[in-house]
Amino acid sequence: INSKLPNIETSIFAKMSKMAADQKALNLSQGFPNFPSDPALNALVDEAMREGFNQYAPMPGDFGLRMEISKKIEKLHNHFYNPETEITITAGATQAIFTIIAAAINKGDEVIIFTPAYDCYAPTVELFGGNIVPIQLKPPFYNVDWQKVEDKISSKTKMIIINSPHNPSGMLFSEEDMLQLQDLAEKNNLLVLSDEVYEHIIFDGEVHQSASKFEALAKRSFITASFGKTFHNTGWKTGYCAAPENLMKEFQKVHQFVVFCVNHPIQKALATYLKHEKNYLKIPDFYQQKRDLFLHLLRRSNFKIIPSKGTYFQMLDFSEISKESDIAFAERLTKEMKIATIPTSVFNEGKSDFKQIRVCFAKTDETLINAAKILNSI
Ligand code: PMP
Ligand code: GLN
C-alpha cells in the first residue's frame, strides 16, 4: 500500500520494552507501574462481570462513570461538564487523542505542539492531512515563551496541543501559562487539546492546572485523562474525553466508528471506585514518596538531575558521562548495564542535541533500589 506515514517506525516504547526483555534488563523505559492495581478495584471488575455487565456499554460510556467524572472535575476544578452530553469514555487517552484529532483536523490545518512531545500527536495530525508546527522547549526547565507561540500562529492554525504534567520532562504549566494560552486561543479562535493523563501525579504541593479551570479555555478545549495512569492499570486502557457539547457532538460522531464503546465491566468498577475520593486524592503522596526515594538514591550519581515536578518520569542528563547520541547511549545501557531507558530525541523529531534519557519511577521500592545501583555505577 501507499504508506500514509512513510517516516514513522515502531514506537520507541514497544522497541525499548522488547529490547529490555531480550536483554533481560531492568525495564525503566516504557511508562507503566510494576506493582498491582488496588485489589479492591480489581474485585469490583470481577463483581461487575458476575453481575452480567459483559455486553456492549452505552456508546458514550457507562452513565454512572460519566457522572463520577463530572463530579470529580467540578470538585477539583470548579467546572461542570454535563455527563449526558459532554463526557465520553475511551480506550485510554490514546483513543481520545486520535478521535479528537480525527474530528477536528482537516487537510491543511496547522497544529502547534511543544517538543519534546508525546509520540502520538504528530503522526495522528499527519494522518488527517494536518501540518505540525513544533515549538522547541529547552532543558532544564522547558519553559514556554508565549510570544514565540503567538509568532507561530497563522490563519491556518486550528489547534494547540498541551500536556501538563509533561511527558517526558516532568514539568508543569503554571496558572500564568494557562492564562496566556487562554488569551491566545480566544484571540485566534483556536481549539485546544489538553492531555492531562498525569493530572494526579504531581509533587511538592503543586496544583494541576486543568484547562477546565479556565472558563473561556474550557469552552474551546478537549480534555483527555487516563485511569491507567491514576490507578496503576495501564493495560486496562480506559480513559475519557471531556469537552463542551458542540465539540463533544463531533467527537462522538467519530468515536462511534472508531470503537463504538469500551470495556464495560471496567467502567462499572471505576464508577464505584471513584465515589471514594481518597482513591485519587492519595495518588500525589504515593508517587512523591517514590520520586523522593529515587532522587535520594541517585544523589551522588554522575547524571545531572532536575527533580520531576509531575508524571512518573525523571529526566537524566548524561552530558558529563558520554558524548554518544541518546539512542546509542540508551541502547548501550540496555545491553551492557542491563537497564532500559527512553532516549528522548524520539520526542524531539529525532533531534538529539539534548543529552537526556527518561526513566520511569512507577516501580516497587526494590526495583528503584536495584535501578539506582546500576545508574550510580555509570
Ligand atoms: N498522553 C501521554 C502524555 C502519555 O504519557 C500517555 C501514556 N501512554 C498517553 C497519552 C496515553 O494514555 P493511555 O495509555 O491511557 O492511552
Ligand atoms: N505513555 C507511556 C510512556 O510514555 C507509554 C505508552 C505506550 O507504550 N504507548 O512511556
TrEMBL record:
Needed co-factor(s): pyridoxal 5'-phosphate
CDD domains, A to Z: AAT_like (cd00609)
Residue ranges constituting the Aminotransferase class I/classII large domain according to the UniProt record: 25-373
One Pfam match: Aminotran_1_2
RNA-binding found in the keyword field: no
InterPro entries registered for this protein in UniProt: Aminotransferase_I/II_large, Kynurenine-oxoglutarate_AT, PyrdxlP-dep_Trfase, PyrdxlP-dep_Trfase_major, PyrdxlP-dep_Trfase_small
Residues in the signal sequence: none
Segments crossing the lipid bilayer: none
Key words of the record: Aminotransferase, Pyridoxal phosphate, Transferase
Top-rank lineage group of the source organism: Bacteria
GO molecular function: transaminase activity
PANTHER family in alphabetical order: FI04487P
Protein name according to UniProt: Aminotransferase class I/II-fold pyridoxal phosphate-dependent enzyme
Species for this entry: Aequorivita echinoideorum
